[in-house]
Amino acid sequence: MNDTTQTKDSLSYRDAGVDIDAGNELVERIKPAVKTTLRPEVLTGLGGFGALFAIDLDRWKEPLLVSGTDGVGTKLVLARQLGKHDTIGIDLVAMCVNDILTSGAEPLFFLDYFATGKLRLDEAQSVIEGIAEGCRQAGCALIGGETAEMPGMYGEGEYDLAGFSVGAVERSALLDGSRIREGHRILGFASSGPHSNGYSLIRKVIERSGADLDSTLPSATGQPVTLGTALLAPTRIYVKPVLSLFRGGSIDGIAHITGGGLTENIVRVLPEGLGIEIDIRSWSRPAVFNWLQEQGGIPESEMLRTFNCGIGMVVIVPEADAGGLLEEASRLGLDSFDIGNVIPAGPGSRVHYLT
After folding, report:
1. For residues 315 and 242, is the Cβ–Cβ distance under 8 A?
2. 3-state SS, residue 354
3. What does 161-215 look like in DSSP terms, one character per residue?
4. pLDDT over 70 at 332, yes or no
5. Does pTM top 0.85 for this prediction?
6. Edge to edge, what strands does the sheet with 336-344 contain?
7. Which H or E run includes 112?
8. Residue 135: enclosing H or E segment and its boundaries?
9. Residue 248: what pLDDT?
10. What is the distance in angstroms between the CA of the first residue and the CA of the last residue of the chain?
11. How far apart are CA 167 and CA 174, in angstroms?
């Protein structure tokens, strides 16, 4: 088209800081990674105004849709500081799909929102390929998203992420905690680190201690890891093994240990009148949490209310089923521990710790 309105003072979107061509190139770059996440129910590819997903009614008889949205908080600041962007997308997926898993739901599809002041193609590609990896781990399809370039909104090199996931569970299998009774056992599954919670406190500890992120910490494998590596370890995605356990029929409650730690998250799935007793001696706390507590002078109560302290997800099961479920969890590759039990809750706190 011949645009006769141009003058020497004319402006383009690129002049304003938004590069449409770069956005189009990013879509082309990420298409191969996105394609690896697709499920048979996905009806559209990238580029449309909306994504289509067909529920398989031969499989699902009375499906309930379960949705979740989340971000990764100020862990992004640490990722930028270390120049490592390839795993933060796994965190994004994990925070959403682990949440909807607590209803017994299988994640079906995922959408992301990536916002930045100026699009850096290699960096953005790395982030979104990480999102695709998270989707592969969770078995859900990355069916769409939004890349927003907003000059003036973000500082140099800054970006933000949000994620949205939808899953399904049969109405008859929905987990709502109503079957949980006094005496049920609480089984904990190991986390990979702080996951994506408490990073404002983590960054304050780093600032006050003057810590070198390249310094080493002890590792359970015997191989030392750097502090930066331990803090950026991607959030564990529990979907596939926990769904396998759930289909065995003995799980009556699931809690994702996110912001609020062990203290606040487990009681969210309990009926009124019940509380929990947790033996914090029943698992070994990873070294990164010990480092944070020592360097930050963080009280134990604050640790347990802020961080997962090594337990990223718990399931609540009848006592008679606990041993068999622990064995099956181990077979599925989950480091798991019997960490406590459900008790009557009197006046005051519903959470009691054994030390």
Report:
1. yes
2. strand
3. EEEEEEEEEEGGG---STT--TT-EEEEEE-SSSTTS-HHHHHHHHHHHT--TTS
4. yes
5. yes
6. 253-256, 311-317, 185-190, 336-344, 274-279, 351-354
7. strand 106-116
8. helix 121-138
9. 86
10. 75
11. 12
